[in-house]
Amino acid sequence: MTISDNIQRVRERMAAACAHSQRNLNDVTLIAVSKTHPVESVLEAAEVGVQHFGENRVEEAESKIPAANAKSTGSLQWHMIGHLQSRKIKDALALFNKIDSVDSLRLAEKLSRAAVERGLTLEILLEINVSGEESKYGFQATGWRTNPAVREPLFDALRQVAGLPGLQVRGLMTMAPIVDDMEQTRPIFADLAALRAEAEASLGLRLPDLSMGMTDDYPIAIEEGATLIRVGRAIFGERAHDI
Ligand SMILES: *Cc1c(COP(=O)(O)O)cnc(C)c1O
Questions:
Q1: What is the pLDDT of residues 116-156, one digit of tens each?
Q2: Hey, whose CA ends up nearest to atom 8 of ligand 1?
Q3: Reduced 3-state DSSP string for 116-144
Q4: Of ligand 1's atoms, which has the minimum distance to the CA of residue 230?
Q5: Is residue 82 within 6 Å of ligand 1 at its C-beta?
């Protein structure tokens, strides 16, 4: 199977998931997660029309993104999807078009300052930890519906981020836990969609994007309202080392 064949398969499954949930395929964007894979693989995907790519480490992106952009005929959109360290903010802003993994108020504040300094409006997504896994980054949201001790600080933080200059909060992102059966991720994705709706209603925000779903669970994420899916292995194959 070539990268192009793999993308074809992913697009078919995206279309099936959209049909199944009466959604428009145009409302779901595929982000090809190219971490650990070479520029040539990015270009192969770009050749069959993939425009959005995800990377999770600034160091790796530093060599890959400029090279891919220089060689690609189309214009590529790069999404930072991994934990961003403060000291890498400047480098990240020079490489990435969007930061889809803003996982704390402190990071949002620093990105805001950096964006204002550069005179740009940076599109971001806020990473939300709905599953409660301690290994995961993100705004803590486990039990937000029923537990005021979670809900109040969470909504407070969302309100503060939304008010920061230089940033446009486009929506929310989450990572589901690794499970045996992809159906088990459905409640996590549904919870993120519900949180988005509640944040829009109670804070008066517009949060059009939901980034959720990876190789093992993107059809479920689409059924639960994902507007961005982040797919690595199903496109580029297994990674030699996982990061
Ligand atoms: C690696 C990664 C993905 C893609 O995972 P696959 O299982 O290869 O599809 C998606 N999102 C994030 C944040 C990642 O780090």
A1: 999 999 999 999 999 988 888 999 999 999 999 999 999 99
A2: 232
A3: HHHCCCEEEEEEEECCCCCCCCCEECCCC
A4: 10
A5: yes
Grade residue 94 by pLDDT with cuts at 50, 70 and 90: very high
CA 56 to ligand 1: nearest atom: 15
The domain limits of the chain are: 3-236
Q: Which CATH superfamily is domain 3-236 in?
A: Alanine racemase (3.20.20.10)
Query: Does the CB atom of residue 31 touch ligand 1 within 6 A?
Result: no
Reference 64, options 73, 74, 54; nearest CA is 54
Nearest C-alpha neighbor of 32 from the set 238, 240, 235: 235
Tell me phi and psi for residue 204, to 5 degrees.
Answer: 65, 35
Is the pTM here over 0.70, yes or no?
yes
